Structure to design on (169 residues):
């Protein structure tokens, strides 16, 4: 019988974030993430609750209101300006622009639209205000060691460097 996700279990998983309406993949983890369940929950509470009791090989889907995770959409963070007022290096949709206020706080804005005359940037998280579906695949579930519990995740072995060849130019 396979182990199930519960407190003090080391869990490794991958996930995708999908738009519930279109099914489009909005985000995905490229490499598995590992954590100790009940100690350093790496995803939102509803997702962690849905993982409880799952086992290796399961794929679960958890619907989430993006506003609960990323806040409500704030239209005051959407700014359109004449293209000529924006430096050339920002003239591409998808470019991130880091803005700083008078207090020195920074915020990321994403170029979302460009036409012949104007450019629009958006400081909202791209996932806010959307109906999301987290699709998670459980890869590993096992008892965590005391050291892993202390560190909050899997412990990677140190590389052996004793017999390594020195590279020279």
């Amino acid at each position: 019988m396979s182990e199930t996700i519960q407190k003090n279990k080391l869990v490794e998983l991958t996930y995708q974030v999908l738009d519930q309406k279109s099914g489009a993949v909005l985000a995905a983890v490229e490499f598995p993430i590992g954590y100790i369940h009940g100690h350093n929950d790496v995803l939102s509470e509803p997702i962690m609750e849905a993982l409880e009791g799952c086992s290796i090989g399961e794929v679960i889907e958890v619907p989430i209101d993006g506003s609960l995770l990323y806040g409500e959409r704030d239209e005051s963070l959407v700014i359109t300006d004449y293209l000529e007022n924006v430096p050339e290096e920002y003239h591409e949709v998808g470019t991130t622009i880091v803005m700083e206020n008078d207090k020195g706080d920074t915020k990321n804005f994403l170029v979302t639209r460009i036409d012949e005359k104007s450019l629009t940037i958006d400081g909202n998280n791209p996932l806010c205000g959307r109906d999301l579906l987290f699709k998670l695949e459980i890869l590993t579930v096992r008892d965590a060691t005391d050291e892993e519990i202390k560190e909050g995740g899997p412990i990677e072995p140190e590389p052996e460097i004793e017999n390594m060849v020195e590279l020279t130019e």
User: Anything to note?
Assistant: The chain has a mean pLDDT of 89. Strands lie at 9-19, 25-28, 33-36, 59-65, 78-82, 96-100, 106-114, 118-122, 131-143. The first strand starts at residue 9 and ends at 19.
